[in-house]
Amino acid sequence: MKLPLTGGCRCSALRYEISRAPGLVYTCHCTECQRQTGSAFSMGVVLETEEFILSGARPRPIQRTADSGRTVTRWVCPECGSWICNGPDPTSTAPGERRVVRAGTLDDTSWLPRRCISGRGARSRGSRSPKGTGGSRGNPRLRIGRGPDQGGDRAGGLTLRSRR
Question: What is the maximum alpha-carbon separation in the chain?
């Protein structure tokens, strides 16, 4: 993977740059992601908000209520409707918050691994999690960890915990 990562929408009205390697890449098989993508799953790249810089048009928010009751905001291109990311306003870089960027909007997707599977309960009949990827029922809880270089004692990056 060559940094910075770049990406954008179909019509190029929105472009972005990611300054650090993402802490987590996952696929989600929930029914909502299937409907949004027209596919059996969506793929997300999780990073901290300050690692994401958006340029171009102002994205349009689309909100829905998740099964948990919380409000989920998807940010889409106002011109072509491409789903770019979830999370706080993409023009904000408030530290400590997470953003999920849709992996399919990256210019180079050749490096994307399949590390984690989410939304297993809604997965298409016959689809399986690759060995070693785990898998969780429902949506995962994502936590940002601090590595030794950041004053912590864990491996760093993001950890995935299922809601059970």
Answer: 45
Angstrom distances, CA of residue 70 to CA of 17, 46, 158: 28, 19, 21
Q: What is the pTM of this model?
A: 0.69
Which class would CATH give 5-131? mainly beta
Calpha distance 150→10 (Å, rounded): 36
As a whole number of angstroms, the distance between CA 80 and CA 60 comes to 11
Phi first, then psi, for residue 51 (nearest 5°) are -90, 0
Q: How does pLDDT run across 31-79, given as a tens digit for each residue?
A: 888 887 788 888 999 999 899 999 999 999 999 888 788 898 999 999 9
Q: How far apart are CA 29 and CA 140, in angstroms?
A: 12
Tens of pLDDT, residues 149-163: 444 333 334 444 433
